[in-house]
Amino acid sequence: MKVTVDFEECLKDSPRFRATIEDVELDVAELESKLDKLIKLCIGMIDAGRAYNMANKQFVNGIRDLALQSTKDTMIESTLTKFAESLQEMNNYHTILFDQAQRSIKSQLQTFVKEDLRKFKETKKHFDKVSEEKEVALVKNAQVPRSKQHEVEEATSILTTTRKCFRHIALDYVLQINVLQSKRRSEILKSMLSFMYAHLTFFHQGYDLFSELQPLMKQLSDQLDQLVVDSAKDKRDMEQKHSTIQQKDLFNEDTKLEYNVDTENGIAMEGYLFKRASNAFKSWNRKKADNIRRWFSIQNSQLVYQKKFKDNLTVVVEDLRLCTVKPVEDIERRFCFEVVSPTKSCVMQADSENLRQAWIKAVQNSIATAFRENGEEPAPKLDKKSSASLGSLDSGAETRSLKAESALQRVLSIPGNDTCCDCGQTEPRWASINLGITLCIECSGIHRSLGVHNSKVRSLTLDSWEPELLKLMCELGNGVINRIYEARREEMGERKPQPGDPRQEIEAYIRAKYVEKKFVLKPTAMEQRSKVTALSKQDKRPRGIVEFLPPRPPPPTPKLRTTSSTTAAASGQEVRRDSLFCPDELDSLFSYFDTSSKLRSLRSADSGIQNSTDGSREMLASTPSSNSPSEPELPESESPVGYQRRESPPVFSELTDFSPGLLLYWASCACSLPDMAEALAHGADVNWVNTEDCNRTPLIQAVQGGSLITCEFLLQNAAIVDQQDIRGRGPLHHATILGHTGQVCLFLKRGAKQNAVDTDGRSPLSIAVEAANADIVTLLRLARMNEEMREQEGTYGQPEDDTCKEIFRDFSQMASNHPEKLNRF
């Protein structure tokens, strides 16, 4: 034991002893203060912990109540019950921890303070008193004169006695100090160690408890991914049903009939009817309409009603085979009909004539069905096609599910797409639309973390798919992309992830594959030169022409919008359609947009638009025709459709180094998606400008190639839709000049500026009008008017009008699935 105060110094009562005593007393006083504070804090912690335990107990009871309320859902009930038990066990562990804190900190330290420190303080009082008496005795002994012998003896005796007492008390005080200093260590460390062991036990028990719970939690976590997907699918289905029903005219009586059939429950007809009292007065007059309005239904060959859902059914007619039904016209009330049985009759009133006829027909059909069932003939099942309610409620969801299923089947039918492109997981349900690959749910999450500049992820089952995007997915596929992005994988000895591998390994592989592009094989200079040369030879532009406009067609022979197949076959020629819309349809179309008075006021104030809405319609309706005789003829050099010739430009300079941008440029013109994907894998700039070819971009070259899918691929990979060439013409200009209606529709949907003009001051609309292309004129005018309507109504950034969306969707479907129908010649 380390001695704090030396016993020898105690006997000497030296200044060192006094200084040491003073230091010890100050230290003990500070120790007492700190221990009191710690005890108070411990008491506060224990009180707060008990309050927490009480609140936690109430929370666990709330979980149990929620589990009891969810008895119909066994998954929620069992999971919540298990979680509540675990949390209750943790609450018990908390209680044990706080009890241990009270025993180890509060009780032990309080005992140390109350007993040991109090004893030290009492001994100090004795020491101070005896020390003072000693000082007095010393002073008195020093003051006694020699001449007074008896006083000298008395003073000496008192001094001797006082010194003995001082030495005894001082030794006890020093002993108490040394024992206290030693005991403070053991008491403090003992209490804290006990408290820390309580924590160790608490966390060990919690770890063991949740280790047993972990398999259930992991299983639930795995199920939650599917639950989230199912929830999102259910939400979209419900939104689709909501939208379908919302679009119906709920105030139309015919529409109300759609909700009166429930074949699954054997109900042939149901709905509210007013019922005339069956008493002697035959009265309709009641204080409240609820007293005479009942919910009638025809089920099990009976006519029944109930006032409220929980009420028992009241049978009006027990057997419909014995009844007849007829309309009632001889009373004051309208829309009444009567069901007559051998014992009684019941007069009821519908809300409209349509509903009355529907009820009469339903009763008659039920009578016939009852007779067939009595003859042991099976009752015919109600077909969904004949049930307005089922058809109307389910058509939207069925159509959407069929579309989603069709998209999934078409994409997965591509060889290699039936497994995840990166890990090989079967039945992938996600896709990267800019890469053209299919992914599992785990790899799709990693692709999302790469950013949309690297990968754009979309669900094959939950999201809607535009036709051009679906065709793009079918043109590429996992096989094509892996041949590019994994060309050097085996050479480098890199292992491809498998399903079930740690997420970190899969993520590292995907980043190396698509972001770092470590496995992409760079071609040799000879391969580069030969590939670019071969692609450049597929340039579809006429040589020696900078740009050209198609000449105005000769005046067409007046004809109807539709021509019989017999006449077309007899003529031996394909009947060409000048526009998707006849003049009457165009008139109705623009009348729809002209319903906005704000739009009309804008048109009247805008000198760039026709003076009247009729002018707009006349221009569109007349575009397929040729110039009128009164139109002045322009010289070829001044004509907007004239040719502007120059010497044939060099296709490209001699290759000195591989240029991924040049490869992308000519691959876009040749409509070679694999070569385009390879160029992007080599780092090609999707907006690369060919300064040797009038500052054209790959997107403009894709327009020249005439492929809608090529344009979609470039746009999905961040191509700028309005980037212009040296003549100020963007992709929309070029598509209009070439008469590519599908591409025009695509660029307008992607936000192309339809009012941009080139260096000659021509906009796409003016070019389309001059070329007499009615389809493109229709699209451009619709886009322009839709934009003007949004500006007038202050709905910038809002979705376009529904009619406009439908027209663009029709054009997209035709351009993707039946492009021959958009050919103008």
From TrEMBL:
Q: Where is this region: Disordered?
A: 374-394, 530-576, 603-648
Q: Which InterPro entries match?
A: ACAP1/2/3-like (IPR045258), AH/BAR_dom_sf (IPR027267), Ankyrin_rpt (IPR002110), Ankyrin_rpt-contain_sf (IPR036770), ARFGAP/RecO (IPR037278), ArfGAP_dom (IPR001164), ArfGAP_dom_sf (IPR038508), BAR_dom (IPR004148)
Arf-GAP domain boundaries? 405-527
Q: How is its activity regulated?
A: GAP activity stimulated by phosphatidylinositol 4,5-bisphosphate (PIP2) and phosphatidic acid.
- Keyword Zinc-finger applies: yes
Its annotated compartments are: Cell membrane; Endosome membrane
- Keywords associated with the record: ANK repeat, Cell membrane, Coiled coil, Endosome, GTPase activation, Membrane, Metal-binding, Repeat, Zinc, Zinc-finger
Indicate the principal place this protein occupies in or around the cell.
Answer: membrane
Supply the Gene3D superfamilies for this chain: Ankyrin repeat-containing domain, Arf GTPase activating protein, Arfaptin homology (AH) domain/BAR domain, Pleckstrin-homology domain (PH domain)/Phosphotyrosine-binding domain (PTB)
GO CC terms, sorted: endosome membrane; plasma membrane
Classification via Pfam families:
Ank_2, ArfGap, BAR_3, PH
Q: Which SUPFAM superfamilies match?
A: Ankyrin repeat, ArfGap/RecO-like zinc finger, BAR/IMD domain-like, PH domain-like
Function, in words: GTPase-activating protein for the ADP ribosylation factor family.
- Reproduce the free-text note on domains from the UniProt record: PH domain binds phospholipids including phosphatidic acid, phosphatidylinositol 3-phosphate, phosphatidylinositol 3,5-bisphosphate (PIP2) and phosphatidylinositol 3,4,5-trisphosphate (PIP3). May mediate protein binding to PIP2 or PIP3 containing membranes.
Q: Kindly provide the name given to this protein in its UniProt entry.
A: Arf-GAP with coiled-coil, ANK repeat and PH domain-containing protein
Species the sequence originates in: Denticeps clupeoides (denticle herring)
